[in-house]
Every structure is written in structure tokens, then in C-alpha cells.
Structure to design on (284 residues):
């Protein structure tokens, strides 16, 4: 297939995680380099001290009319030879290289997930069909659209697929279309000076030729405006699934602490009407 999947979610948390990850990695590399340089300096100084001590002892013995041993002469010669080899290899024209990014970056799910596996697999199956280029997921706020997207993303992490890259794009209400397009182009490795001179429509046309789009929205009308090939509604959980999620959040230790609690808890879970966000918040 050779296409790409692009997923779109809301906003600052992902950017903060990416920034923190990059900063931590950079600090780790910098600290490790400093540590290695310090170790090299200490070892070099120790070698110089050892050399000076040995030469002093040799000169003192020679003053007494003794002749230095061939083994000592060979040791000094070998050390000088190794130092010269190291010096010859120290002309580093290139000191770093770009690390290739994974084709799919795993996303973490921070809440229990119930009843979404079948839906996630259905979406993945649709994306693999040649005639599907754009797929929209719609549903009310808190129904778990972002969690579903995360599951779909991680399915591509753990299973073989024909996509060259999976791109997770963060989109907010105030975000400019240009920044979204640039994020996608950078991830595709296609951003260049000539791209800067294209307008939004031209960039969109080029992007659509090489990737498939999966997005979420609260509005079914948005799916129509986006001219999606497939639209799927993300629905609230069935009663049994809702209770399972509520129980996972409340934990059995709490539910079993008094005989009356399970019955009351089921009534509270029922008032959430299968909305995962409500079940997660109230159950906790």
C-alpha cells in the first residue's frame, strides 16, 4: 500500500510529553559525553604519571651502570604507538547523525479501557482497504474517541501493516492549518523550501495523495464536510461494559468493604449512561 495514516487529537498534553522526552534524551546524551571525556582525561593523566615514574626509575638504574630491559623499552614503544593511533583517529568531521524515527510512535493510555477492542479492529480493517482514503469517527464529548484513536495507533505498533508511517497530529480550535500541514510534511520527510511557496490548498492536495486520514469530531456534519469515505459513530458503553469499567476504577477492595456498596455502586454507574469519561471520574 505504501500509504500513511494520520490521526488527530486535542492539544497541549502530547506536545508537553514530546518536549519533555526530547529534553530528557538530550540531557542524558550530554551528561554521558561529559562523563566519558572526564574519564579519558583522568586515564590520560594516570598514563603520563606512570610513564614519568617508569622513565625516572630507568634513568636512575642507568646512572648506576645498568642497562634498561628490552621489555621496558617495548612497553614504552607500544604505549606511544597506541597514543599515535588514537590521535590519528581523532579527526571527527561528523560527530552526530540523525536517528531514524519509528514508523509508529507508541502512545500511552492512562485509564482503563473497556469495550473498544472490536471497534478499534474494525477501524484498522477499514483503513487497510484501498478504496478508503478518509475515515471519520464522531461521537459526544467524553465517549472515548481519543482513547479509541490511541488504541488504533498502538495496533499499528504491534502488528505488521503496509503503512510507511503513522502520524499523530495534535489539532486545537485556534491552530492554523499551515502548522498542521508542516507537522505532517516534516514527519513525511517532504518539507523543503519549495513547499513553503505552495498555498494551503496545494499542500493539502499533495498530502492527500500520499496518506490516509483518520480523524475524530463531535459532529457528524463534520464528517460530511470532510467528504469521508467511511464514518463511524463512537457510542457509549453497554450496561455490562459500563459496570465493568466503573468496577475497575472503584476497585474490588472498595466495593467489597460493605455489603450495601455494590448495589449503590451499580445505581451510580447506571446514572453515567455508559459515558466512559463519567465512569472513570466518578468511579475513581
Amino acid at each position: 500500500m505504501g500509504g500513511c495514516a494520520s490521526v488527530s487529537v486535542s492539544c497541549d498534553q502530547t506536545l508537553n510529553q514530546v518536549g519533555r522526552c526530547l529534553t530528557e534524551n538530550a540531557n542524558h546524551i550530554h551528561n554521558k559525553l561529559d562523563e566519558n571525556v572526564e574519564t579519558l582525561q583522568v586515564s590520560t593523566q594516570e598514563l603520563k604519571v606512570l610513564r614519568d615514574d617508569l622513565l625516572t626509575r630507568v634513568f636512575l638504574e642507568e646512572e648506576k651502570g645498568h642497562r634498561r630491559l628490552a621489555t621496558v623499552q617495548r612497553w614504552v614503544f607500544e604505549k606511544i604507538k597506541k597514543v599515535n593511533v588514537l590521535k590519528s583517529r581523532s579527526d571527527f568531521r561528523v560527530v552526530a547523525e540523525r536517528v531514524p524515527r519509528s514508523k509508529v510512535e507508541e502512545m500511552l493510555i492512562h485509564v482503563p479501557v473497556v469495550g473498544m477492542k472490536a471497534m478499534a479492529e474494525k477501524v484498522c480493517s477499514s483503513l487497510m482497504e484501498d478504496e478508503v482514503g478518509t475515515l471519520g469517527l464522531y461521537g459526544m464529548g467524553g465517549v472515548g474517541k481519543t482513547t479509541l484513536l490511541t488504541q488504533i495507533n498502538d495496533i499499528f505498533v504491534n502488528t505488521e501493516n503496509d503503512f510507511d508511517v503513522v502520524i499523530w497530529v495534535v489539532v486545537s480550535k485556534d491552530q492554523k492549518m499551515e502548522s498542521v500541514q508542516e507537522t505532517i510534511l516534516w514527519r513525511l520527510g517532504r518539507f523543503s523550501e519549495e513547499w513553503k511557496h505552495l498555498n494551503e490548498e496545494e499542500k493539502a492536495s499533495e498530502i492527500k495523495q500520499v496518506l490516509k486520514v483518520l480523524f475524530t469530531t463531535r459532529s457528524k456534519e463534520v464528517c460530511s464536510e470532510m467528504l469521508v469515505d467511511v464514518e463511524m459513530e463512537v457510542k457509549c458503553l453497554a450496561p455490562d461494559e459500563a459496570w465493568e469499567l466503573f468496577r475497575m476504577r472503584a476497585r474490588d477492595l472498595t466495593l467489597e468493604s460493605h455489603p450495601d456498596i455494590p448495589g449503590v455502586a451499580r445505581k451510580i454507574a447506571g446514572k453515567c449512561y455508559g459515558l466512559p469519561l463519567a465512569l472513570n471520574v466518578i468511579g475513581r
Notes: Confidence is low (pLDDT under 50) at residues 7-23. The two ends are 43 Å apart (CA to CA). Residues 239-283 form one domain.
